[in-house]
Amino acid sequence: MVEQLAQTFGASTQTAYDETTLIVQTEQLISLLETLRDDPQARFEQLIDLCGVDYSDYPPGLTEHPERFAVIYHLLSVSRNDRIRVITYVAEDRPVVPSAIDVFACANWYEREAFDLFGILFDGHPDLRRLLTDYGFIGHPFRKDFPLSGHVEMRFDEKKGRVVYEPVSIEPRVTVPRIIRQDHDS
Amino acid sequence: MTEIRNYTMNFGPQHPAAHGVLRLVMEMDGEVVERIDPHIGLLHRATEKLAESKPYNHSIGYMDRLDYVSMMCNEHAYVLAIEKLLGVTPPLRAQYIRVMFAEITRIRNHLLWIAAHGLDIGAMAVFLYAFREREDLCDVYEATSGARLHAAYFRPGGVYRDLPDEMPKYSASSVHGEKETRQKNINREGSVLDFIESFVERFPKCVDEYETLLTDNRIWKQRTVDIGIVTPDRALQLGFTGPMLRGSGVEWDLRRKQPYEVYPELQFDIPVGSTGDCYDRYLVRIEEMRQSNQVISQCVDWLKNNHGPVMIADHKLAPPQRTGMKQDMESLIHHFKLFTEGYSTPPGQVYQAVEAPKGEFGIYIVSDGANKPYRLKIRAPGFPHLASLDEMARGHMLADVVAIIGTQDIVFGEIDR
Q: Are B48 and B374 a contacting pair, CB within 8 Å?
């Protein structure tokens, strides 16, 4: 079934850890999701999760990631008891993905979240506002070039009688460095 | 005739019925809700981003603080995801302990839910009853992990330590006399398992008490029956899981359908609702407490008769014994490396879900082979539930919004992450 779908939609497939992944071009995404939902052999009725990933820091030499951002859809079939993952890559200079809101109603907030945190735009979303960050927040915090400590901090200014924003004063600190070792097979 | 105007009303974020920091902007036509726009993110701590900058084990404590009323279930998903990535299986005893605590956590979550939901829609007494039992389970948590709430007890490869042989006892004071203290310590004479066993024996009667207070209560029924009906198809479309989905009549439970750990060995039933209203979801959760109680009882039986390690012996993952560390070089090196650098996972991506009390709690890890996750995504069950609040509450009265928030079992730690 998966092989057949992959051929129809020009997608590539991967299987690792008993999980099937379909990697699809952005143009084919919505029709693939619709087929996965409606095809009697697939029947993935539920969008369990949708998230963005920023691959800009991913070490070279491992899996190839054609573009900086990926949008990842986790689907669940309640009737067939199966899961599938759909990945589509989007470019940094034009991070636009068609919205899946007409296929799965719960894509609404997930897409708002991915827009908020990664700046990925969902074409056709009726209400693409920020969801998790503060009112008036600037930037997309889960991108790898956004510092962990952020850019601004806020405090209550007694003289002005309101909350003021200032450039962040804490120094970012790495307690345990990121280390990649090749010995995990042993 | 007087002119009727639509009002825009603000609800929360500091309202007691808002379950934390929910802010709703509601468009009202008189007392009828026309549209709800939930504003979330007031508790956003960027857990996922923080986890990217820490070794795997450092984030276990963050998992407790996601859904802060079902702590160990969150840890469970996280350690299972790491184990899947590493390809390790914990010892059988550790699996039973984990499953037992996952079910204890489910009861704890549902007890808090019924208490808060009852308070929200006008049943004061059930709060006091529910917290009486919840206190005992807090004590079990404390005796085992050292913390009453944020346990950080599960580890990739097992659990942090075996169940203790002794249950902490009350001591008499000027306020609580000798006789009263002796009474309170009656079921604390044995081990933690004995205490859990006595709880399991007592608990079905307690659930009966909550049911006496609510199930046939006229006011309770008026507030919940036919409120917030979701059809099975719509529930799937909206991404519902857990009791929200089962309340709508879809028989779906990950513990049974995609079993993890020792769930295939255990006997329990999956309750489902029929109409998909608040009352059905209440009945489903009540029955889940009874079923969880049975699972705990089976785990206690197994744990009493079977002993063994609770952590894998691979010292790349699990710290060596303290005594060994003082005596041989190998253990010392392992200890040092594990606590300064942690362990690395092979590159790849995994998604692991568990049946948390609120629904499917999933962890998606993208690894680049480092000692920290490259990307961690937490699939919180409450997130799609709250997203559908608008649809569920449309056309209902303002007071019903509170009932619907209650039935969704909203906890902001997991929604805002």
A: no
Cβ–Cβ of B50/A53 closer than 8 Å? Answer: no
Q: Is the link from the previous residue into B164 a cis peptide, with omega within 30 of 0?
A: no
For every residue of B362-376, DSSP letters joined together read: EEEEEE-SBSS-SEE
Across the interface, of A54, A130, A176, the residue whose CB is closest to B340 is A176
B48 → closest Cβ in A47, A142, A181: A142
CA distance B40 to chain A (A): 6
Q: What is the distance between the alpha carbons of residues B60 and B64, in angstroms, rounded to a whole number? A: 7
With CB atoms and an 8 Å threshold, state whether B239 touches A181.
no
Q: Does A142 touch chain B (CB under 8 A)?
A: yes
Give, rounded to a whole angstrom, the gap between the first and last alpha carbons of chain B: 49
Q: Which of residues 191-210 of B touch A (CB under 8 A)?
A: none
Strand-pairing partners, residue B23, are B39
Name chain A contacts of B368, Cβ cutoff 8 Å.
58-59, 62, 180
Q: What residues does A162 pair with on adjacent strands?
A: A157
Whether ipTM exceeds 0.95: no
DSSP string, B63-131: HHTTSTTSHHHHHHHHHHHHHHHHT----HHHHHHHHHHHHHHHHHHHHHHHHHHHHHTT--HHHHHHH
Check CB contact under 8 Å for B351 and A19.
Answer: yes
Average pLDDT over residues B211-218: 89
When pLDDT is cut at 50, 70 and 90, the band that residue A186 belongs to is: very low
End-to-end CA distance of chain A: 36
Give chain A's count of helices (H) and strands (E).
3, 9
User: Does the pLDDT at position B11 exceed 80?
Assistant: yes
Residues of B in contact with A45 (CB under 8 A): 236-237
Strands ordered across the beta sheet of A82-90: A12-16, A19-23, A82-90, A69-77, A46-54
The CA distance from B366 to A19, in Å, is: 13
Task: For residue B401, report the phi and psi dihedrals to the nearest 5 degrees.
Answer: -55, -40
